[in-house]
Amino acid sequence: MKIDLSGKHALVCGSTRGLGRAAAEMLAGQGATVTLMARNEDLLKGVLKTLATPAEQQHRYLVADFSNPAFVGSAIKEYLGQTSVVHILVNNTGGPPGGQAIDADPTAFEAAFSQHLLCNQVLTQALVPGMKDAGYGRIINVISTSVKQPIPGLGVSNTIRGAVANWAKTLANELGQFGITVNNVLPGPTVTGRLKEVINSRAEQAGTTYEAIENVWLTGIPLGRFGQPEEVASAIGFLASPAASFITGINLPVDGGRTKSL
User: Fold this and answer.
1) How far apart are CA 15 and CA 89, in angstroms?
2) With 90 as the cut, is the pLDDT of residue 205 above it?
3) 206: nearest Cα among 153, 146, 144, 151
4) In the prediction, which pLDDT does 65 show?
5) Side-chain-facing half-sphere of 192: CA atoms under 13 Å
6) pLDDT confidence of 92, banded at 50, 70, 90?
7) How many other CB atoms sit within 10 Å of the CB of residue 124?
8) C-alpha–C-alpha distance, residues 165 and 23, integer Å
9) Within a 13 Å sphere around the CA of 35, how many CA atoms are in the beta-carbon half?
10) 90 near 138, Cβ under 8 Å?
């Protein structure tokens, strides 16, 4: 199956590294015009240069700090005054720091809720009117397998990711009548900077080595390896396409079989 997103415009959040960058590169390679969105302008400029750029694709970037939903709202409002409809929204933001839920300060939950769910809501509210007019919309949230099976040591993340998953399912029910789908991609352990940070933290807490923790994790993955960002991006590319037009409201694990539940 060849996925062709020519004529579609995608906004990809957190697109300067890791899964966000892989998603942006995948969507651009499938023919979409991509707008990158993150807080570091220098990194945004660097990624922009890597995107496939046929004449019909005018890729751009948008600077926004997801710790401030109001700033995100102002940035997207100004941007929509300068551009055409955005058909595809990829909500992707770095995860909260690790630690047990019982030890987390309430402000940690507030910050994560703001950075993830509130910014997702701000962007979605801004882009849905254009999607309705176009009769085509894809909202894809990159969250975590923790929405099916909480991950030990990620108490704040488990909590907030679950909230995003239920928000997305609610939206899927509300927006389906307009040809807009809302789905969640759930990456398992994937070779990114975030994975290295988590394994290093676990090793430090346990007083052991990075390699020891890595081996424990690998034994829990039926495919016997960590994922690559491009593999998660492929799932995003499919859900963004017309081929996925009858798929909405789902949680799609891309985790090598690690999640034990269906």
Assistant:
1) 12
2) no
3) 153
4) 94
5) 24
6) very high
7) 21
8) 19
9) 21
10) no
